Amino acid sequence: MPIIDDAVAKIQDWQGKDISIQPLSGGLTNTNYKVTVDGTPYFVRVPGESTELLAIDRANEVHNARAAAEANVAPKVLYHLPEYNVMVLEFLTGITMSKESLSAEGMPTRMAKVIKKLHRGPRFLTDFNMFRLTEYYLKICAERGIPIPDGYHDRMPAVNRIEEAMNVKPLATVPCNNDLLAENYMDDGRHLWLIDYEYSGNNDPTFELGNTCQEMQFNEAQIREVCAAYFGEATPSMIARMKLNMIMSDVGWGLWAAIQAKISKIDFDFWGWAMERWGRAVEKMDSVEFEGWLEEVKR
After folding, report:
1. Kindly report the CA angle at 249 between 72 and 152, in degrees rounded to 5?
2. What is the CATH number of domain 3-92?
3. Where in the chain is the domain with CATH 3.90.1200.10?
4. What is the model's pTM?
5. Is 68 left (phi over 0), alpha (psi -120 to 50) or beta?
6. 211 with 249: CB under 8 angstroms?
């Protein structure tokens, strides 16, 4: 019996009711469904295979999804079936955003404001650190013979320099989603929502900001708009922190994509994505601005 059917049958409140199950497209890790129960829609998330290799802690995810809902930036978790790691959430009626829609005038400011709302919400269960996650992903790749783009290990000294510079004047950690690619924003016409808390954890807020700017491929003006909307002004030090975290976004999630290329059954060019991300990270580390960013965050 497929997990979705088994999970739906386990929910006591749904027994004896008219149920329809419709697969949803778009997930890069899991399989998602719209389950309609006596006319009421629900969102059901079924985890993908071997996702523990991606360092996803399902107990952490559920706790943080509930905390984000309490902050009123995410849908409520209505049911949780730990034996399947299945979550049932409120079904949001709205538009799944894209890079194009989030690049529209005023959208970087809206994004920064809802991110700040999440960051002011309840603390998350565990912490997130992209430097440690990068080390973990490299270990998984080495142990399992998973190919990675050429030059990763050669660039680790530069990654270490980024961490050292950021730790000179560290920012207080806040509850972060850490994976705000375009499709993890939804707009219902009134509110911008943040979904998918698989990689959530307390983290430096400039990782969240830099990561989402990198995912959107924002230009300089848009990066500054996000920074100013979040902090009140776009200071050189916060811009530099965001720029360095844009590099770390591509370094870490590039390895994630390499692992997915090996283990995922989802029809997506994960290897191409890994190469694209690594290429961007290398370009920034080789840029004339890189040394300046390192110095700026230490001031």
Report:
1. 155
2. 3.30.200.20
3. 96-298
4. 0.93
5. alpha
6. yes
pLDDT tens, position by position, 45-96: 998 766 667 878 889 999 999 999 999 999 999 999 999 999 999 999 999 9
3-state secondary structure (DSSP) of residue 49: coil
Residue 39, exposed/middle/buried by CB under 10 A (0-12, 13-18, 19+)?
A: exposed
CATH 3.30.200.20 intervals, the chain: 3-92
Nearest alpha carbon to residue 94 among 191, 28, 24, 216: 191
pLDDT > 70 in the chain, percent: 97
Residues 6+ apart with CB under 8 A from 95: 101, 186, 187, 188
Contact 216, 249 (CB under 8 A): no
For residue range 163-219, what is the model confidence (pLDDT) as tens digits?
999 999 999 999 999 999 999 999 999 999 999 999 999 999 999 999 999 999 999
Residue type, 134: T
CA distance 162 to 205: 16
What is the Cα–Cα distance from 38 to 46, expressed in whole angstroms?
A: 21
Question: Shortest CA distance to 217 belongs to which of 275, 147, 277, 176?
Answer: 277
Topology adopted by domain 96-298? Aminoglycoside 3'-phosphotransferase; Chain: A, domain 2 (3.90.1200)
